[in-house]
Design the sequence.
């Protein structure tokens, strides 16, 4: 992880501290959003970050801040006129093809859900390393951990996992070694977008 301190970075700060879930360390969230703004994510994580920015005021504010900081760093490194990144628009990764609108449209339609080994229902989201996850009211997944980073964005409903309770737009970053037990909250199904780094092995254990 690269840590940068620049004295000339504008003094703009979020109107509130970074609001991350208790499952997600603040430094992990910041690094994830920095990579998003820089366009360094694989398509799966790029879509997750786009959804978070689109559905969450906190996500949009964080992306705006790091886009501004990135513009200052770029200007200084090139000793050229300002090339600050405008707004929270990231530099898109070349492989990104699935848009936020497409993901939201798919999640709101009838999907071909299938029951995974855990008993939770999943449906393909249209990009490598991505899927929709649905928890019915009162349903929970088994306690589990992850071998790699998992990015989950709530699209509808709410869920809790022993670390916090998450609603539409919230981004939950499950780090390797941390364990949790997602469970739907309330009388509404919870639908989430879930992203991993793509691998042929991963798809067999959804």
Sequence:
């Amino acid at each position: 992880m690269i840590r940068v301190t620049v004295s000339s970075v504008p003094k703009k700060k979020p109107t509130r501290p970074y609001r991350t879930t208790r499952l997600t360390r603040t430094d992990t969230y910041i690094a994830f959003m920095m990579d998003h703004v820089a366009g360094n994510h694989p398509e799966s994580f790029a879509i997750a970050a786009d959804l978070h920015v689109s559905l969450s005021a906190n996500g949009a504010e964080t992306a705006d801040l790091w886009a501004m900081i990135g513009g200052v760093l770029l200007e200084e490194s090139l000793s050229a006129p300002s090339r600050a990144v405008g707004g929270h628009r990231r530099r898109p990764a070349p492989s990104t093809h699935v848009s936020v609108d497409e993901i939201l449209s798919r999640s709101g339609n009838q999907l071909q859900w299938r029951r995974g080994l855990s008993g939770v229902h999943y449906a393909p989201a249209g990009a490598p390393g991505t899927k929709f996850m649905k928890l019915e009211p009162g349903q929970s997944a088994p306690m589990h951990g992850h071998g790699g980073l998992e990015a989950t964005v709530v699209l509808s409903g709410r869920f809790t996992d022993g670390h916090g309770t998450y609603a539409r737009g919230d981004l939950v970053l499950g780090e390797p070694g941390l364990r949790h037990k997602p469970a739907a909250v309330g009388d509404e199904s919870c639908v989430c977008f879930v992203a991993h780094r793509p691998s042929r092995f991963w798809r067999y254990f959804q």
Observations:
- The two ends are 29 Å apart (CA to CA).
- Residues 57-78 form the longest helix (22 residues).
- Helices lie at 26-38, 43-55, 57-78, 100-107.
